[in-house]
Amino acid sequence: MSQAAPQPAETRHEMLMRQTAEGMPLLRVEGLARYFDVSSPWLNRVLQNEPRAILKAVDGVSFEIPRGKTFSLVGESGCGKSTVARLVVGLYKPTYGHVEFEGVDMATLKTRKQQAPVRRRFQMIFQDPYASLNPRWRVADIIAEPIRAHGLMSDEAQIRRRVGELLEQVRLSPRDGEKFPHEFSGGQRQRISIARALASNPEFLVCDEPTSALDVSVQAQILNLMKELQTELGLTYLFISHDLAVVYHISDYVGVMYLGRLVEWGEARRVFFNPQHPYTRMLLDAIPDLEMTGRARTPVAGEVPSPISPPSGCHFHPRCPFANERCKAEMPESLGLAAGGEVRCHAVEEGRLPPPGDTGAVQAARARRDEAGA
Ligand SMILES: Nc1ncnc2c1ncn2[C@@H]1O[C@H](COP(=O)(O)OP(=O)(O)OP(=O)(O)O)[C@@H](O)[C@H]1O
Ligand code: SF4
Ligand SMILES: [Mg+2]
Q1: 46 and 191 assigned to the same domain
Q2: Number of structural domains, the chain?
Q3: Which domain holds residue 195?
Q4: Are residue 169 and residue 76 in the same domain, yes or no?
Q5: Are 186 and 131 contacting, i.e. CB atoms less than 8 angstroms apart?
Q6: Model confidence, pTM
Q7: Which among 320, 344, 349 is the best mutation to test ligand 2's pocket, defined by most ligand atoms within 8 Å of the CB?
Q8: Which numbered atom of ligand 1 lies nearest the CA of 80?
Q9: What is the pLDDT of residues 306-316, one digit of tens each?
Q10: Ligand 1 pocket: which residues have CB below 6 Å?
């Protein structure tokens, strides 16, 4: 019997092209939730007749990130952004929901051996570069650590060359490898963190407030570097920031979180220029100026309530100028928008919100854009 000729194995490049063509997102999270038990010790609870306290840090978050794109998660402190980041990279196990990487549910990879090849393909960059770099190691050893840990190279000369390349990739000098972390500025240290993250040839970077500890001018340099690296290496980013202004230039998609939930997401242009959720509008109003027009900002009003006992119905209702009785009683479901993306808001569903053009920062940016286009 004649045997069919063996099909040549699909190359990595071909596989990536096929998956892009098929529209498969690189990352998909579905109904992701993480609850923490923050109850007092058992004896205190019994003596003081306290119930268990469960903190829903993340509750039912779903989004996708297409390959080569940036999805930014924004929201005030404590809304659950870092918990999403930790769930995505596997530092926390979800209480509910799934994290899928290239269509593979991470929960199905049970053993370290099964997880290792997938885990190598994503890396995390943290806010404080100094805390995440071992102060006693030379920079070359810090950057080489993932190469050694993943067994990507064993020849020392080859590793040294690769470390030099990585330092150049983040616009530092190969000679900087001989120095220690304390010999660098904050921005340079974040470049070292990025070089270390790139050492295992990842495709996906989870960046948790990577520029929040830096001066504004240095922030811009790091953001530009990240954009350049994305283009050069085809990277996909989950970028986290408490500041919508920071994500304006780098995002393809933006998701806005409030008390553990994604209240609005969509393409960045749509979220910035046609924001729907009252919380998104409030955050946009607080941006001094998207495009440096010198407009005054409206500070964000009120504070985020405790996630241990969140407000009933829509969690945002105590701060929302459009709240009504339904908002106090009923949690809004996610609603698909004709303009793309989703929003959780009764007022949007009922069509009773004023047009989003009233948002000052957006108005200023739009005026500027129209002027430039005129
Ligand atoms: N390990 C934990 N145990 C108990 N509670 C936690 C834990 N990790 C996070 N939380 C709580 O979950 C909520 C969300 O925290 P998270 O760090 O994800 O917020 P965040 O949006 O990243 O805030 P920030 O902007 O301040 O970094 C907070 O109320 C936090 O106190
Ligand atoms: S559901 Fe109601 S309270 Fe919540 S954001 Fe919409 S209008 Fe405001
Ligand atoms: Mg955080």
Answers
A1: no
A2: 2
A3: 128-202
A4: no
A5: no
A6: 0.88
A7: 320
A8: 18
A9: 888 899 999 99
A10: 36, 38, 55, 57, 75, 77-83, 242, 307
